[in-house]
Sequence to fold (291 residues):
Amino acid sequence: MTLRGYLGKFLTGGKTPSPGPAASDPEPATGPEEPSGPVVHHLGFDIPRRLAWRTGTLPDFTTVSQKHMVTLRRFGALEQARHIVEIGCGVGRDAISLIPLLPPEGSYLGIDIMPDSIAWAQGHITPRDPRFSFVHFDVADKQHNPGGTETMQDHRIPRAPGSTDLVYLFSVFTHMFPADLAQYLRDFARILRPGGHVVATMFVITEGLPAHLLRIGGGGARNLTFRHEIEPGFFHNDPAVVPGATAYALSRLEQEAAAAGLEVTRFALGAWSRSGPPETTGQDVVVFTRP
Ligand SMILES: C[S@@+](CC[C@H](N)C(=O)[O-])C[C@H]1O[C@@H](n2cnc3c(N)ncnc32)[C@H](O)[C@@H]1O
Fold:
């Protein structure tokens, strides 16, 4: 099925299927921290609450991660994936969920810019399961890594060309500006095997959506309107808050994918942009595939 055909299925009738819910809040570290207890119990790991909170979606930490696994099965052929890369892994909560799912000969690499989260994952997850490794990119970012001294241009994913079956990013392109998104897509095209997928949850602007968002007072938990079109097909929710929340037109994503050597092969609307109750805030899902 073509992308347009796939889209058509979802754009008719105003009803959208659940994309497999994703972390929906683009700025989890800005809300009040959950007060109770020093650690969050997550599938046999005790994660410092401060780090879990920075990864996001407390108190539904484990539930959201399990929903991420559903999304990876549904959109990323998780069952066939042996070598996996996660961008924006935070403290490694989805890595922990993947431990029983990764085949014995498989590998997982998690990358994030938050140094203490990566240090915790390196110190606690890798020793329990050496198939899992974590790398810190010291990219400067006011929200996630204010002490960072580098840019995305200084980094390449430490994986060999064609070595990776699946790359995924939950709620990471929701913060990203075009140059960094384009660089990641190029790097994904390099490391993916032919037929390999990238699954990204993010905010996607489709035809008529900006007017709809303004009409309903914004979508998602933070009333996102993306009223600022910074450049063609790239939207920001509030340019005064950087990185804040970003969104891309589907056509822009198709262009970026083509420039990188990927194709947008699937797209599913999330619940964030509807005028439904505030808790229905799942992000859109985009699948990029290496031809
Ligand atoms: C909203 S959180 C989502 C965390 C996790 N993916 C989840 O859904 O639970 C965004 C994550 O992306 C990370 N991040 C932001 N910019 C990044 C970049 N350029 N490369 C890698 N990770 C990045 C942040 O540090 C943070 O952990």
